[in-house]
C-alpha cells in the first residue's frame, strides 16, 4: 500500500515559546527585558534560537519601564516578559506609565495551566481583568496554534491611534505545548499605514491661519518625536517664522541656539498670542487643563487620538492625524500664500526674546551660585553644560528634576526622556538601561532624586553586569522634597517632615559596591570635574551631589494640588 502522507514522527513541531520568539522577530523586536519564572522560560529558549537579546533585571517594574524606554528611543515597540502572579503585578506600574505616556510595548505574562483553571494553581491571578484598564489590548492565548497570531494582534493594537501598551497572558501548558508548524499562523506582513495627514480642508485652514497670524506660536509635544516629525516641524516653523516651544520628548526638535527656539517665555506667549498651535500634547495638568491659553487666541490642536482633541478646553480647529504628515502637509499648503502677518512677526519674535532673556538673566546668579549646600539650579546648570550633541538626558525625580526642566536643553531630538504624565518615580535606571542598550555609541546621562533612585536602584547592578555605562547624578537632599513643600504649605513648617524624610545615603559607595564608579560632591566647583571623571570611567556611575534641602523649584511651588 502506498504511503498516504508523513507520519506523526516526521511532522515538524514548534512550541508556544518558540512561536512567541518568531512573532517578536517578525515585529522587529531584538531585545526582551525580563525577570525569570517557571511559567515563561520556553520564551527564553525561543529567543536564543531567534537571536533576540535577553536582558534579565532584578524587578519586573524595571523590565516594563525598560521596554517603555526602548520603544521611545528606537521607535519600535518594546517587550517585557514576566512570570505570573506577583511577576505580572510588579510590572503594573511600568505598563501604567507607558499607557499615560503613549508608549507602545507588549507585556507578556505567564499564567497557570489551562488544565488547572480555577483550581488554585501557583501564582494564578485574573491578569487580563487587572491589565484591561491600563492597556489598549489585553487577552489570554487560548491555544498554542494562536500564540503568534495573538502576539501580532497585540502589536497592532499598540499602534492603533495614539500608541500604547498591550498585554498577553500565556498559560503554561499553552506555552510549553508543541504543535505542527504548518498549523501555527506566524504573521509576517500585516501592518497598514497609519500616517494620516488629517482632513485636507482642515490643513488648508491651518495654513491660512498660520500665514495671516500676527502673533503665532506652536508647542511641539511628545508626538512630534513619536511620529518622527522633527524635519517637518523645523521646516514649518522656519518657513513661517513661528516661535516654537517644546515639551516632553518634543524637546530638542529645535537646537537651543535656534532663533525660533523658546523655553522660558511660554507663559507670556500663551497669554498674548493670537494663534496657538498645540501638537501632540493633551490639555492635562501640565497645560493647566488648557486654561493657560489666552481666551482671545485662536487655538488649533493636532493629535493622533480623536478623544484628546478638545478635551478640557474648546479648540477652534482640531486635526486628528500623524504629526509628521500633518505638519508637512501644512507647510506645503502655506508655501504659495502671501504672508500677510509677517510685517509684525519680527516684532513678536523680539518681544518673546526679551521676555526669554529677562527670565534667564534673573535666574543666572543661582545657576552660577557657589552656595553650600549646593543650589539645585547650580547642579542642573552644570549638567546642561556637560551634555554633548550625543547625550541622551533622562530625568527621574520630583523637585530636583523640576529644576532641570527649566535649565537642561537637549541638543537634538530624541535626547530627552522623562516618565510622562503619570509622574512615575523609578524610571531612571530602566530608561538608561534601554537607551544605552539600544544606542551603545551615545552617552546616557540621568539625573535622579534620591527618593526616585531608591525605588529601582538595585538594577544599577544590571547595568554593570551588561556593561552599560552611563553618567548618573543623584541630587541628594535626603527628602521627598516635592511632597515636603506641599505639607509645609498645608499644615505648617512644624509638620513638614512627616513621612517624607530619607536617610543621608552616600550613593557613591553603593555604586562602587556594585562595580561602578562613584563620587561624593559637596562643593559646587567639583560638580563639573566629577561628571567628567564619570564619563571617562567607562562604567555605570553615580555622582552623589548634596543639594540644599530647603530650596524648592518654582514648578513645585506652583502646583495646583497644594493650593
TrEMBL record:
The protein, known as: Acetolactate synthase-1/2/3 large subunit
CC per GO annotation: acetolactate synthase complex
Example GO BP: isoleucine biosynthetic process
PANTHER family named in the record: 2-HYDROXYACYL-COA LYASE 2, THIAMINE PYROPHOSPHATE ENZYMES
Domain Thiamine pyrophosphate enzyme TPP-binding, first and last residues per copy: 396-545
One Pfam family of this chain: TPP_enzyme_N
Enzyme class at the top of the EC tree: transferase
Species this chain originates from: Saccharopolyspora gloriosae
Family recorded in the similarity comment: Belongs to the TPP enzyme family.
Known EC number: 2.2.1.6
Required co-factors: Mg(2+); thiamine diphosphate
Annotated InterPro entries: DHS-like_NAD/FAD-binding_dom (IPR029035), THDP-binding (IPR029061), Thiamin_PyroP_enz_cen_dom (IPR012000), Thiamin_PyroP_enz_TPP-bd_dom (IPR012001), TPP-bd_CS (IPR000399), TPP_enz (IPR045229), TPP_enzyme_TPP-bd (IPR011766)
Protein keywords: Metal-binding, Thiamine pyrophosphate, Transferase
Recorded GO MF terms: acetolactate synthase activity; flavin adenine dinucleotide binding; magnesium ion binding; thiamine pyrophosphate binding
The keyword Transferase appears for this protein: yes
Residues covered by the Thiamine pyrophosphate enzyme central domain: 203-329
Domain Thiamine pyrophosphate enzyme N-terminal TPP-binding: 15-124
